[in-house]
Each structure stands twice: as structure tokens, then as C-alpha cells.
Design goal:
By secondary structure, this protein is α/β, with parallel strands linked by helices. It has 2 domains: 220 residues, Rossmann fold (3-Layer(aba) Sandwich), CATH 3.40.50.150; 113 residues, OB fold (Dihydrolipoamide Acetyltransferase, E2P), CATH 2.40.50.1070. The protein has 10 helices and 17 strands. Helix 6 links the parallel strand 11 and strand 12. The structure holds S-adenosylmethionine (SAM).
Length: 367
């Protein structure tokens, strides 16, 4: 990938190496970071080197009456104006200048607009315009033509206000193990930004689960892994803290005809306490936790990794699958788990070319 803003825009930090060299660099980094864990080999899953991001947020920079997209600068001082970004999916890249031109021409749409978020899937595109001013039905009428003109769904947001012009979600189709799955992704909920690598991650996990009974999943989001994995298990208990994501997860079960998953909206910490029977939760009154015979636990925590209590709890499981978006907290958690488990497989997923970011997957089995 080439970009005229390399060295100026803070979004890409690995731009002096070609793609192959970047992948080798990340593999070397992982080899030395995880040296103390004696990983035999890393499987590496690559990405297209450009147009890989389905989720992107840009600030809007105002100069008099004109506006442009802006990103934080590489030295973290201020912003730089950009006209394009080769990381975003083609459909976002094509829309960006056209949308900006349209908004520039309409004062009410342009004024106090401070950011534009794009969410693209294989089936659609959702655009969110964020304002530092109150927006209402007058704004709806002005923004509505954007939907028909560009074939997108538009949402307007300002403080405590969300204006949904047609829908606040997009549908995504993923192919896992030659089977198609539909996902309903609501704006504002977490979704994996790189569709191609996401499919590779889910496939990899599905390939490595064996001798299954029931699955416990912590940090499940909208069921990205849960839905395809549910086919490999008798029953699944999955938890997630975000109300938005749980709403999508329930919808995703219906969309895919899945009936063996119980989704809970609670933190991993709370569910751990409940499973250890240290406290009763009102939200669990209708849930029979004792019916589960867990053979596997799957975790995909945020960048901070797992809390100590939940980590100690999952160490009791025969099989652990750990997907991580932060190698440093993964290393911390694996240093703990190595007392009870051995690493069977370790994969590196290059979700974000041209950045230092590294996504990992680890399959662990009890010693
Ligand atoms: C890296 S995302 C993974 C989501 C999902 N596995 C996917 O692939 O889309 C982490 C998820 O953990 C959720 N989360 C963050 N802290 C949590 C907590 N303490 N307990 C449960 N879920 C949490 C976030 O809302 C987010 O959906």
C-alpha cells in the first residue's frame, strides 16, 4: 500500500517496509515477546495490504466554509487534513470525497459537524455524522437525500441524540467452513474491522476445537465467533457487557436459525462470580448454570486483557481458546496460564497492515 500521508498521519506507523517485510517483522516481534512461553511455531494469517478496513472514523476539519477529513498527526500534535485513505474498504474510499462535497454544499449539514464514521460490510454501508449542535427533524429532511443519492444508511448524532433515517445496523455475510452466516451489526457496537482476516480467525478457531461438550464464552460481542462455534457444541453460554451487542447477538441467532446459545448481558467478572456461586444475580434467576458441562472456554477480551479473577477461573478449564488484540496483555495472561496449560497452537492474524497492531489466537490444553 502506498499513501501520500505516510510519515504525517498518525494512523500508519509501519510504512517503510513492504507488506511481506511487515509480516516478517511482526512474526519476529511475537517470537521474541513470547520467547519464555516456548511457542513451537506461529501460524501467520495475512490481510490484503490495502482497502482492508470496514470500520473507519475521521474527524472533520473546518476552514472558513470549507471542510475536509482529518486524522491525528504522527507526532500526536494536532491533526492533518486528508482527502483519501487507502486503508478503508473500496466502497468507503469511493464515497468519502463525494459525501464531503455534498455536505460542503449544505450549510445545515456542514455546520458543527465534527466527525464522520463509516461502517461497511459485504452487504451495505452505514454513515454516521456527528455534531456539536442539536439536530432534529429539520436535519433529517436535509440528510435524507444522502441515502438515495449514495445508496447508504445515514445516522445523525449529537449530545444524547441519535437520528436514524432508515436503519441503525448493517448486515454482514461471512463464509466459515464453506457455510454462509448472516450477522446483524448495530452502529455503536463492537465489530471486527477487517472482514477477510475476521473470517480467517473464525475458521482457525472452528478448525481447532475438538472433543466438545458445552462452551463458555466471555466477551462475545454480537456473536461473531459464537454463532459459527455453536455448531460444534451441544450448548453455549456467552456473556458480553454491551447492551447493543447483546441485542445484535440475539438477532443473529434468529438470522442463522441457531437455538443452542444463551446470551447474558453481564461482565465477565460478574459471570465468573456467579459460576463460582459466590453471589446470586437477579439477572440469572431464569438461567440454569448447573445444566452446562463445559469442555471449552473461549475468550476475546478488550485490549486490557482479562481481570485476575476471571483468568484464575478459566484456568480450571480443560481447553482454552484465547483471541487477543494486545500482545502485551496476552503475554501477561499466558504467563499465568502456563502453570496449568500448554500451548497447542499459536496464530498471528494481521488485522491492521501498516501498523504495529497484532491480533493473536492461542489454543491451550490442560497439563
Ligand atoms: C475484542 S471485542 C470482541 C467481541 C467479539 N468476540 C467479536 O469478535 O466481535 C471485546 C468485547 O468485550 C466486551 N467487553 C469489554 N469488557 C467486558 C467485560 N468486562 N465483560 C464482558 N464483556 C466485556 C466489549 O463490549 C467487546 O464487545
Amino acid at each position: 500500500m502506498d499513501c501520500e500521508y505516510f510519515g504525517k498521519c498518525g494512523s500508519c506507523t509501519l510504512y517503510e517496509l513492504d507488506y511481506e517485510a511487515q509480516v516478517a517483522y511482526k512474526k519476529d516481534f511475537a517470537s521474541s515477546l513470547f520467547e519464555s512461553l516456548h511457542v513451537k511455531d506461529f501460524e501467520v494469517f495475512t490481510s490484503p495490504s490495502s482497502h482492508y478496513r470496514g470500520r473507519a472514523e475521521f474527524r472533520i476539519w473546518h476552514t472558513g466554509e470549507s471542510i475536509s477529513y482529518a486524522m491525528g498527526s504522527v507526532n500526536k500534535k494536532g491533526a492533518i487534513c486528508i482527502t483519501s485513505c487507502p486503508k478503508v474498504e473500496e466502497k468507503i474510499a469511493i464515497l468519502m470525497p463525494l459525501l464531503l462535497e455534498y455536505i460542503s454544499l449544505h450549510v445545515e449539514l456542514r455546520e458543527r459537524l465534527f466527525a464522520i464514521d463509516f461502517l461497511a460490510s459485504s452487504k451495505g454501508l452505514l454513515v454516521t455524522l456527528l455534531y456539536h449542535k442539536k439536530i432534529d427533524i429539520t436535519w433529517d429532511e436535509l440528510a435524507k437525500p444522502i441515502e438515495a443519492k449514495f445508496g447508504v444508511h445515514v445516522i445523525g448524532r449529537s449530545h444524547k441524540v441519535k437520528r436514524v433515517l432508515s436503519q441503525d445496523f448493517i448486515e454482514e455475510e461471512l463464509t466459515i467452513d464453506n457455510k454462509n452466516y448472516l450477522f446483524h451489526i448495530i452502529e455503536g457496537g463492537f465489530s471486527q474491522p477487517n472482514r477477510i482476516v475476521n473470517e480467517k480467525m473464525i475458521n482457525w478457531v472452528c478448525l481447532h476445537v475438538k472433543d466438545t461438550h458445552d462452551l463458555l464464552e466471555l466477551y462475545c460481542g454480537h456473536g461473531n465467533f459464537t454463532i459459527p462455534l455453536s455448531e460444534k457444541f451441544n450448548n453455549v453460554l456467552a456473556t458480553e457487557i454491551s447492551k447493543t451487542s447483546i441485542k445484535s447477538a440475539l438477532k443473529n441467532c434468529t438470522l442463522n436459525g441457531v437455538t443452542n446459545i444463551e446470551f447474558l448481558r453481564m461482565s465477565a467478572e460478574e459471570l465468573t462470580i456467579a459460576l463460582k456461586k459466590e453471589r446470586e444475580f437477579k439477572r440469572l434467576q431464569e438461567v440454569d448454570l448447573d445444566k452446562y458441562n463445559f469442555s471449552h472456554v473461549f475468550v476475546d477480551p478488550p485490549r486490557s486483557g482479562m481481570d485476575e479473577e476471571s483468568l484464575a477461573f478459566i484456568a480450571q478449564f480443560e481447553n482454552i481458546i484465547y483471541i487477543s488484540c494486545n500482545p502485551l496483555t496476552l503475554k501477561r495472561d499466558l504467563e499465568f496460564l502456563k502453570n496449568t496449560h500448554t500451548i497447542q497452537n499459536f496464530a498471528l492474524f494481521d488485522q491492521f497492515p501498516n501498523t504495529e497492531h497484532l491480533e493473536s489466537g492461542v489454543i491451550l490444553q490442560k497439563i
